[in-house]
Design a protein that fits this description.
Blueprint: E1 3-10, E2 20-27, E3 32-36, H1 43-51, E4 58-63, E5 66-70, E6 73-74, E7 82-85, H2 97-101, H3 110-123, H4 139-151, E8 157-161, H5 169-185, E9 189-193, H6 197-203, E10 206-211, E11 214-219, H7 221-226, H8 231-236, E12 240-250, E13 253-258, E14 261-264, E15 279-285, E16 289-291, E17 297-306, E18 310-317, E19 322-328, E20 338-343, E21 350-351, H9 381-391
Parallel strand pairs: 3-9, 3-10, 7-8, 8-9
Antiparallel strand pairs: 1-2, 1-4, 4-5, 5-6, 10-11, 12-13, 12-15, 13-14, 15-21, 16-20, 17-18, 17-20, 18-19
Bound molecules: adenosine-5'-triphosphate (ATP) and magnesium ion.
Adenosine-5'-triphosphate (ATP) binds near residues 15, 41, 43 and 44.
């Protein structure tokens, strides 16, 4: 691993609890890692510790197998060969683009410096812009200059903290793809922080979901969505609800009884004995619920949100349980209408109903099959349904 965090705690002086707790992660050379999570969960703190700007209280940070941070030991930021891009991208307003980008290249001769500046400006799509001043550039162009400035000294690792948050949404999306291409072309290893899931998915090879200082899952986008390790991740990524379910074995097949009907032949399903009485919670994503006029199960539309090609409907079954469904937007039903639905679930994500810890390995029963029994943070059914319902707004 190029960057490794082992059991990392970071606690600010005067604070009762660490801002970052027990974080483990590894980033390979050339990979782009992204951290997402709600405000105050510790993303910037973690990034600053990697940069050497914040001391760690427990655990270690390693760069290329060399310990650069441990309790009582912080290698200074200057010797870590790390480039940083922050939210406000802080270009020097009185310097033209060429001097901004060449700022960290004082050790090079003038000719070498000019060559490197031209190279990185070309890389970020701003060839020939070196005589322009920051105020003559758009927000997106300024952001690319900031990226060029960080890349110019060829840092071993690039850290980016919400680099697009000042930009409007269209530009953000375009720039996110561009930045991924630029980082890959520069063969850079990078760790980026964002609030925005789509941005994380567009840029990251590996994505970490943080909450309250803890890293809940460090994984690729597919696994975060399809195999969330905790209820928090299931809740934070995508739309869905947790519903109570009972697992039973019938003639060698596992049946999953849910409020929307029986699910059979679902992949990654734990054995019923993984849960007391086979009782657990199942994650039903909005794309697991299919609108079908002929289906015997009906649900009332209680909320709908237009998403372009589809609606995100929040539905209530006669039993009172809530579900979400993505429905093509030409099916424009009214609020209060009852529509037919069925579940189309190819693999099942189960959570222990009342597990006090959020580490799934700690609460897997011995007979649970690997990967199928994610244990959540112990939310009660009703509150978790309400919580997830809110994410649809
Ligand atoms: N210098 C500091 N001194 C004391 N506490 C701090 C300091 N900086 C941050 N904190 C606290 O540490 C926690 C994590 O803050 P941090 O800035 O890392 O969050 P974040 O995930 O980057 O949030 P945001 O998405 O809002 O930028 C918060 O509770 C914050 O109040
Ligand atoms: Mg932050």
């Amino acid at each position: 691993m190029f960057l490794e965090l082992r059991q990392l705690d970071i606690q600010y002086p005067g604070s009762d609890t660490p801002a970052v707790r027990g974080v483990n992660l590894g980033l390979r050379a050339g990979d782009i890692g992204v951290l997402i999570g709600p405000s105050g969960c510790g993303k910037t703190t973690l990034l600053r510790a990697v940069a050497g700007l914040e001391p760690v209280s427990k655990g270690k940070i390693l760069l290329s197998d060399r310990v650069v941070s441990a309790a009582g030991q912080t290698e200074p930021a200057e010797t870590r060969r790390i480039g940083m891009v922050f939210q406000d991208y802080a270009l020097f307003p009185h310097m033209d683009v060429g001097r901004n980008v060449g700022f960290g290249l004082a050790h090079l001769s003038k000719t070498e410096r000019q060559k490197r500046v031209a190279e990185v400006l070309e890389l970020v799509g701003l060839a020939g812009a070196d005589r322009r001043y920051p105020h003559e550039l758009s927000g997106g162009q300024q952001q690319r200059v900031a990226l060029a400035r960080a890349l110019a000294p060829k840092p071993d690792l690039l850290l980016l903290d919400e680099p697009f948050s000042n930009l409007d949404i269209d530009l953000r999306e375009r720039l996110a793809h561009e930045v991924r291409n630029i980082l890959k072309a520069a063969n850079a290893t990078a760790l980026l922080v964002t609030h925005d899931q789509l941005e994380a998915f567009a840029i990251g090879d590996v994505i970490g979901v943080m909450n309250e200082g803890q890293l809940h899952q460090w994984d690729d986008a597919y696994n975060l969505y399809h195999r969330p390790a905790t209820r928090f991740v299931a809740d934070f990524i995508g739309h869905g609800v947790f519903t109570p379910a009972t697992l039973r074995e019938v003639e060698g097949r596992i049946m999953v009884s849910t409020p929307v009907g029986e699910l059979t032949d679902v992949a990654e399903c734990p054995l019923p004995c993984a849960f007391e009485g086979g009782q657990c919670d199942v994650l039903l994503r909005a794309d697991d619920i299919v609108h079908d006029d002929d289906a015997p199960v009906k649900a009332e539309i209680i909320r709908k949100a237009f998403r372009g090609s589809e609606f995100l409907y929040t539905l209530r079954l006669a039993s009172g349980y809530l579900l979400m469904a993505h429905v093509p937007s030409h099916h424009d039903h009214k609020l209060g209408e009852w529509i037919g639905i069925r579940a189309e679930v190819d693999h099942v994500v189960t959570f222990n109903r009342a597990c006090p810890v959020n580490n799934r390995s700690l609460c897997q029963m011995p007979c649970a099959q690997a990967g199928g029994n994610a244990c959540g943070v112990g939310l009660q059914d009703a509150s978790s349904v309400v919580k997830l319902e809110k994410t649809a707004e």
